Amino acid sequence: MHSDLALKMTADLFWTGFLICLPVLGLTMLVGLVVSVLQVVTQVQEMSLTFVPKLLTAGIAVVMFGPWMLRMLCQFAAQLWTNIPAMFP
C-alpha cells in the first residue's frame, strides 16, 4: 500500500464520517443556538432548558436521518471491500 492510497482512504473516511454526523450535529447546534438566544432574551438560566431540547432534537434527527446514515456507511464499507484487490497489485 502506498502512502497516497493511505491518505486518500483516510480522507474518504473522515469525509464520510463528517457527512454521517452532519445532520445530527447541525440540528442540535441550531436548536442550542435558538435556546441560548431565548435564554438571553428571557434571562432564564436553567441548565435543563438547554439539555432537553437538544437531546430530543438529536433523537428525532437520528430517527429521521438514520436510514440515510446507515446507507452511506454501508456504501462506504462496500466500496472499501470491493477496492481491496486494486490496493495490492
Walk me through the structure:
The chain has 89 residues and is mostly helical. It has one domain (3-82). It is 90% helix and 0% strand. The protein is elongated. The termini are close together. Keywords: Cell membrane, Cell projection, Cilium, Flagellum, Membrane, Transmembrane, Transmembrane helix. The chain crosses the membrane at residues 12-39, 51-70. It is found in: Cell membrane. Belongs to the FliQ/MopD/SpaQ family.
Briefly, what is this?
By secondary structure, this protein is mainly α.
Count of alpha and pi helical runs: 3
Parts with pLDDT < 50 across at least 5 consecutive residues: none
H-E order: HHH
Q: Strand-residue fraction?
A: under 5%
In this structure, how is the largest beta sheet organized?
A: none
N→C terminal distance = 9 Å
Number of strands: 0
What is the topological layout?
Blueprint: H1 3-42, H2 47-82, H3 84-87
Helix pairs in contact: 1-2
List descriptors:
89 residues, mainly alpha, 90% helix
